[in-house]
Write a structure and sequence with these properties.
By secondary structure, the chain is of the alpha+beta class. Helix content is about 30%, strand content about 30%. It contains nine helices and 16 strands. Helix 4 (about 135-150) links the parallel strand 7 (about 125-130) and strand 8 (about 165). Helix 2 crosses helix 3 and helix 3 packs across helix 4 (about 135-150).
């Protein structure tokens, strides 16, 4: 029987709680009102018949896949890890509803900067520690198939001996420093800065990897690129309510990504102006009283808004303004 309808993950990568806060900000934008008391991992929502349950990220993928909760916010790495160990069936498994514009990270193979292990292939037969044994095992199995077919760097054919993969729940890099692992498979976080996140053009990110470098390690292969995702069970109890929450989340994300650009333009320049900013679907065009001018409103991605406004001014548009959006449905 379903007990809770929506669960949230604490930070998926060590960024001092920023991912959890991003999820909470997202729900606040959806007008999901709740108050979480200290040291309690459950919060009842005031304006909807649901509760929020705060769990470790890996537990969220499990609970949603098993159907004990309807919706969850966690990392796509956690979903893939669960599926690597527990393949989905008709009755179980989590369905991705949409990608969320935060929580970008990479699950990477990491080895010492100096030493005999300098490629993922070098770790065959070696000791590897990870919090993602399912994904790590699949990665090295696929790599072994490639080596067995094409031969290794020395021309040797045949399936290589797989690495000995050991599970560790946290501080994976410590296993290398303790001398019990030759390499690790661990997450490398991406923090907001002046780089571009592949999920949304509004976010800029930088690979941090501070923990990796401080341990004397460097990345030599990427197992999986992850981000926060909204997932749902295959048979949600409150399907209509879950649909409403999902629409609101999509609207908040759209509002974060776009601005409304409004301007006036002469009728004879309207077609040219619309070609500069065609909008998410199509612009809204109305006539100005007593003139041959048109008033235009169009949604433009925030990262493009300055250039679009310059181009509109250059083509003859006037009274150009950019307006932030609170929500979009």
């Amino acid at each position: 029987m379903h007990t809770y309808s929506l669960v949230l993950a604490p930070p998926l990568i060590p960024l001092e709680g920023r991912l959890q806060q991003a999820a909470l900000d997202l729900l606040a934008g959806c007008d999901i009102q709740f108050r979480r008391q200290d040291r309690l991992d459950i919060a009842h929502v005031k304006n909807h018949p649901i509760a929020l349950l705060f769990l470790p990220a890996s537990d969220i993928a499990t609970r949603v896949a098993e159907g004990s909760v309807d919706l969850g916010i966690t990392g796509s790495d956690q979903v893939r890890e669960y599926e690597a160990v527990n393949p989905p069936t008709r009755e179980t498994g989590a369905e991705k509803v949409l990608d969320l514009p935060f929580g970008c990270c990479k699950l990477q193979v990491q080895v010492p900067k100096v030493g005999v292990y300098q490629t993922p292939k070098d770790l065959f037969g070696a000791r590897v520690t990870t919090s993602f044994p399912g994904l790590a095992r699949l990665y090295f199995e696929r790599l072994a198939e490639q080596v067995g077919t094409k031969g290794d760097d020395h021309g040797n054919m045949g399936m290589p001996l797989p690495p000995k993969i050991t599970y560790q729940s946290g501080s994976v890099e410590a296993s290398y420093r303790m001398g019990i692992a030759d390499g690790i498979v661990d997450l490398v976080g991406m923090s907001t800065g002046f780089g571009k996140c592949s999920l949304t053009s509004r976010l800029w990110v930088i690979e941090s990897g501070d923990t990796m470098r401080s341990a004397g390690l460097h990345a030599v292969g990427t197992v999986f690129e992850s981000n926060a995702v909204l997932i749902r069970s295959r048979f949600p109890l409150k399907q209509e309510l879950m649909g409403k929450i999902t629409r609101r989340i999509k609207g908040v994300i759209a509002a974060q990504k776009y601005q409304m650009c409004a301007y006036n333009v002469p009728q004879n320049l309207l077609e040219k102006a619309i070609s500069i900013a065609p909008g998410k679907r199509a612009p809204t065009v109305t006539s100005l009283d007593g003139s041959d001018w048109k008033a235009v409103s169009v949604m433009v991605e925030k990262v493009k808004i300055a250039d679009v406004m310059d181009e509109l001014a250059g083509c003859g548009a006037e009274d150009i303004v950019a307006i932030d959006l609170a929500k979009s449905i």
